[in-house]
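Minutes, project check-in
Item: structure for the 176-residue chain
Input as provided by the requester:
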Amino acid sequence: MSSNPDFDRWYAAKCARFLVEPKRRLETFGNTLVNYHLVSELEDRPGKIRVREGRLEAHRPLVITPDFSGIETEGLSDEAKAYAEFLRQHESDLRILRYGFRLKADNYTEYVVTDRLSAVTERVRAEVAQAGDELAAVIQGVDEPWDVALVELWMREVRRSADGNIRELQEQGKLF
């Protein structure tokens, strides 16, 4: 790690390689558990590989609707007031999905092995494939700050799931 925590976070995020992504997207009407396996080489210890395994809990996405009925436009220009009125008339078309995740550092296990990074990574990938876990992810990343990769995993899954979640909510009449 460097003396610059901002650089360390950026570096950890950019170094995260997603080798296996969950086959299923996040649930629309319930919670989802994503099982992660993070493989990293220990700093300054070549051949020492740490494997961390844990779960991220994704909460059911919530539909957020704005409320423009109480918006006050005192002191604003006529254009701003007209725009606020437009939003008020079309607020039923404005919906946002909010995804909640439970990211906890205390619900994981880890072990260290002596081997090549590529060999350990392949072994973990094979174990995940054999288990048939459709909500498993295998990530290769840095050892510190390793948990930045989990935030990247969360963001990737939200982006990947949003279109399907919106479609299902529309089909059930729960979005618009």
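Outcome recorded: The two ends are 47 Å apart (CA to CA).
No further action items on this chain.
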